[in-house]
Amino acid sequence: MRQIHVLMAAGRADRPVDFEDEPGDCPFCPGNESMTPPEICRLGEPWQVRVFPNKYPASDHHEVIVDSPVHGIGLADLTQDQLALATGAWGARVRALYGLAGVRYVSAFHNHGLTAGASRRHLHTQLIGLDFIPEAIVQEQDFVSSHPGHACDIVEKGFVFRENRSVLGLCPAVPAFSYEAWILPKEPGPMLPQDTRDFAEILGATLRAMNALLGRPDYNIMLKAMPRDWCWRAEIVPRTGYLAGFELDTACHIVSILPERAAAELAEILSKTT
User: Fold this and answer.
1) Which of 6, 151, 240, 268 has its Cβ near the most Cβ atoms within 10 Å?
2) What's the pLDDT tens digit per position in 164-197?
């Protein structure tokens, strides 16, 4: 029998799903700060990024990062500076949660759209601090610690579609989803750097290319970072299909778009827009 971790979070059942809410009713909009738990921090005045505990937590450490005060836009609509401010907060809060007693893994993720699991239209990122390390992360961490060149192998075997001074965007050689894209550093490091402008440039460009290529799909972003024995990366999964019975039964994924084709299509879009 397979072993899985399950978080029992009965309070999540009360979480409202109001994806069509208007700015006046949205707790993430400026002026509605009293509708959220007391904030942990804010960036800018008036604020441009705001962080507070999740009102319906899945764990003892569950935070919401509102990535922009503007209602109804996506990360692809932010400027590089705005995206760097937001992603800088992602990295800072990941580091802060890892500094708490009992937190062994921090899951940082951004859900965009209903089919990606977003319950509100106002863009936001979430962090969940866990008191255990998920088995998939344990397996990769063990592999990374015994294979120091693992990050370089990912780059060598993947299909690069964008790069700048310090960051690469590529489609991994063995994706789990069609058009899956990874963003990772040229110089391996365990945590997202404090200066995230290069990361923001690749992230924004990739999301805009996916919007143009796939018709503004819903998507998930997972920022994977660990304090040691790791190389950080962001995984972007556009929701172009669904997990069906075969995938749920076997944990095997059927990918219909080869990664080299996905990378070539993304690169072509980017060549026309930059």
Assistant:
1) 151
2) 999 999 999 999 999 999 999 999 899 999 999 9
